[in-house]
Amino acid sequence: MSEAATRPTAHATALLASLDPLLRAWLPRQRWFAGKGRPISALEAVTATELLPRSSPSGLLHLLLRVRQPVVTTQATALDGTELAADCYQLLIGTRRTLPPHLASALIGHVTEGPLAGHTVYEALHDPHLAELLLERLRIPGRAGVLRFERDMSVEIPSGLGPRLLAGEQSNTSLVYGDTFILKLFRRVVPGINPDLELPLQLARAGCARVPAPAAWFLADLAHGTAAAAETCGLGVLQPFLAGAENGWELALRMRAKGESFTGEARALGRATAQVHAALAAALPTVTLGRAQVEASADAMADRLTAAARAVPALRPYAPGLLTAFEALADLGAEGQSWTAQRIHGDLHLGQCLRSPDGEWSLIDFEGEPARPLSERRLPQPPVRDVAGMLRSFDYAASHGTWEPQWADDCRAAYCSGYAEVSGRDPRTDPVLLRAHETDKAVYEVLYEARHRPDWLPVPLAAVRRLAEDGSADEAH
Q: Which residues of the chain, if any, have pLDDT below 70?
């Protein structure tokens, strides 16, 4: 988000002056805050919009907040593209003179200075009254300061739907309204339309029923100083809530624990993935990856491997074998092999899939890997990248509890077969491309687990061992 585009008003600066000391203590405790473990150097208001004035019994302040922290220039940071120097976050802050007991857990603090002096401030999404107000703003298109609310007028959004806050999310915050709609709020905000709004909108227009169609959404238009142009930032999207649907990860673990086969579900999920890919290819431009693009992709994968091996010593013994996957891809490119690239899901795994009570699969959460820059997430990619992500997810499910490699192999085969039934091409018939993307994904997982969930590190390391041995076997032949 450019500095010139986001000069705060005096009003926003004054409001932040009231909140600054409280937010410095509160932000690092939030699950979605990416800068944990690093001191906050400065907080800067990008925008401040009072959706409900603080003179009301309960006010609602929408804040886009730039958080400055020391830059950490480690190889691990460079690998996932995370830049922690000046992240921008979306906050919804409630204001009351006295906080009722049922909102005690949402407390941010008591303001003693500035325009908010004498108020108690809290996380507004915990307050049903303020959460309902947010839904009302989405029901009625229009503007509120820099905020722009839009909706699909063909979709009925009733008023009075009771809100409940979902727990457990890492990078966003979601509210369910009356088991009818779900509102996802993007916490880290960057210029451009978030793919989790952009792609479902395109798929809805293409008539793809595999993805819940956006019913309403809101954005921020941030002016470039005195210029007419503005940066548009996606802030949130309201979609149908699939009541009774089961998360693919939880379903797979439950069926596996009961000794039931998951291959039928994996095959159906492969068909659903191929249908979404076909709809995206029809709705948005595709490109051909020729020699230069293939070699550049292989080089980028190799660079990520080098950086990850430097950060995670356990990966180093396997690096030479893994590198052959990327070298083989570059060799095919040099020989004139080309592939089609298109917009894809970008972070596909069992947890991003929902099965409805009637057995139909839907794909959700089209943000891509949130640690990567938005510009990178919006690039066309070979569809096999999504396939590789799902194959890795079957490995994870097979590793939960007692390791069952045959369970994973059966699911992988069924998924690819289902994909081929719709696309006409089995991903396994392009083994070099598939191995390169699965290897790249496994390397990413090694770094992620080493940094965030060390107990899970053996899962991607087992895949790394297998993929490296595949490279050794290829060299032997």
A: 1-8, 72-85, 224-230, 471-477
SS3 397: helix
* Gap between the Cα atoms of 433 and 447, Å rounded: 22
Q: SS3 for 419?
A: helix
Name the token pair of 242: 């699939």
Report d(CA 223, CA 230) in Å as an integer. 4
pLDDT tens, residue by residue, 139-195: 999 999 999 999 999 999 999 999 999 987 778 999 999 999 999 999 999 888 899
Residues 336 and 390 grouped into a single domain = yes
Check: CB of residue 80 under 8 Å from CB of residue 347.
no
What is the pLDDT at residue 1? 52
pLDDT at 374: 86
Give residue-wise pLDDT tens across range 320-344: 999 999 999 999 999 999 999 999 9
Q: Model pTM?
A: 0.89
For residue 94, what are its two tokens? 């409630």
Q: Which of 215, 240, 265 is the last residue of a domain?
A: 240
Residues 185 and 291 in one domain: no
Q: For residue 368, what are its two tokens?
A: 């891509």
Pairing of strands 59-68, 163-165: unpaired
Residues 253 and 225 in one domain: no
Per-residue confidence (pLDDT) for residue 84, from 0 to 100? 46
Structure tokens at 416: 């690819």
Pick the last residue of a domain from 195, 224, 240. 240
Same domain (yes/no): 26, 104: yes
216 and 335, same domain (yes or no) = no
**First CA to last CA distance, the chain:** 51
- Beta-carbon count within 10 A of 420 CB: 18
Q: Do residues 381 and 332 both lie within one domain?
A: yes
- Which range of residues forms the domain containing residue 411? 246-476
Same domain, 232 and 252: no
Q: Which residues are CB-neighbours of 349 under 8 A, at least 6 positions away?
A: 249, 389, 390, 392, 393, 396
Q: For residues 365 and 463, what is the distance between their CA atoms, to the nearest angstrom?
A: 25
CATH code, domain carrying 373 = 3.90.1200.10
Say how many domains are in the chain: 2
What's the pLDDT tens digit per position in 243-289? Answer: 999 999 999 999 999 999 999 999 999 999 999 999 999 999 999 99
Same structural domain, 65 and 89: yes
